[in-house]
Amino acid sequence: MAIKYWEFEDAPLKEKLKDVKVKHVARIFFDNDTEAYRFATLIHAVKTARALRLKNVPKHIPIATAKRYLDYGVEIGMLKHENSSYMLTDRFSKPFRNMATYIKAWMESVENEDPAMQFTAARIEKQDKRGGASISKPDASVSGVKE
Predict the structure, then answer these.
(1) How many domains does the chain have?
(2) 147 in any annotated domain
(3) Which CATH number goes with the domain that contains 54?
(4) What is the pLDDT of residue 83?
């Protein structure tokens, strides 16, 4: 996590609450632009859809990546996973009180945001397969089947 607790002291928090953005929410948890963009895109999709299923994630984010980020959102208490859907929730503990206040303000805001515009340095396109074993027919000598 990339938590910079000093940014959420009482005085800076009051300034941040004047202009809440999904970028700031994602930046709490991720330093890397690409990771923050993906997380921001997914929580923004959850916010706009009210409940997001894995089959409905944005097409430019792979399903496995989306599941990993959404499950992370469940771990930190920002999302809940019920009936195969992810929904926003507010289950933050006491130490995250000010950050939770900011995140809750973002959840309640009605501003239409575009994470792609906020994370200009993020790699948005899908990656190609990174190697691994290719799928081939089983060899008869390996499987023990005689011809």
Answers:
(1) 1
(2) no
(3) 1.10.10.10
(4) 92
